[in-house]
Predict the structure.
Amino acid sequence: MSRSRSGLALAGAALVAVTVLVPNTAQAQFGLRGGPLGVARFAVGHIIGLSRLRHARMAVRGGRYRYRSAALRSQDPRGSERGQPANPYVVRAAMTAQAALSGWHGGRRPQGWWRHPDGSYGWIGPVFWPFAHDDLTTAIILGDTTSLSLYGYGDIYAAIFAPYAAPELAAYTAPQGRRGRRVPSAETVCDSSDTGGLPVDRIAATVQPNEMQRAALDELASAWTTARDTIRASCPAQAPMIAAERLGVMQARLDAMIKATDALTQPLAKFVDLLDDGQKAKLDSLARERQAALASAQPKDAQATAACDPDYDPRYDVQAQRRYEQLVQQQWPADDIAVTLKLDDTGRARLDVLQGTTLRTMETLSSCPMKAEATPQARLAAVKTRLETMQQAVGGVADALDDFEADLSDEQKAGFEAMGPKRGT
């Protein structure tokens, strides 16, 4: 198959992957409801990620959905840092899928609609953002924001229309019976999913620190461990059964990650400032090596590259228009919600605001790769900015949900919550 045909096939696969994540046909036009730029870039993120999806699924099938916490602890999602083959996405997809799908439909389904395009999952039962600490490490030290960039609209959508029914979700916080042996507890997921810390030995071998620099590196490693504990403490003890609580879990997790970046700022700057220019170049070489490896694995799709260009405007791209028209065929079950809840005009207007607010996060949380900053301090600042942007986006959606539910009866609220598991069938 030619390269151009491969690109078209990949784009088509991306459309299939995101058909549950795009605007309502009756209300969306090209350029509205989240913006064509946001939708195009959201789709591009899936195109890029799908290049790894087939291998990830193979890894998942190898485990056949049996979750083993020992295996989860033994694998390092950063791969090559510890001498393992450098394909962290396959490892992550296998581990998160085993955990996420063991509680969904009794573990009988091969894949869930809320998965990330690399095959991993941003929600595992009540746990949002597994590998949060590892993602910070990989982004700041190695300059690899691949996983970080994939968190956004799809995860917010999954928080509103939960894939898990209440008994399935509760199984993660109180595993019982035979099925309980297959479903990991939230505590197990939280304890096991952050597998590493600061790669101290690798950094030391690279920069060859003197005594003062080594002391600063040890101080940085200690701060990294404290940051991990801060993030770990944000894991929920109870399953969030309603959308407002799930959005609250997202906010708590993001808040913990932002606090973690704050705690790393001073010790990271202290260590880097003690290095001479040659040592700084060697430290930055870790990121360059990682970026080169990622670049060699990316699909050579010119359209995907163009759509992530800051100056790209899909309104002048005929193929992008066609893709958008396909993308808007399915999205929120707005009509089903209005009928099921018997919404009046005010309720329907508030639902439209909730939908519009959520769709706008496609653009504010673009899944295109983040810019590769040159230094660890600059990467730390960029990561914090991304997390703060996501925190604001989730907060805006939470406010819109509160407004929508303000005048709903308990029966209507229960009907709205039932839409989530229904969408996951």
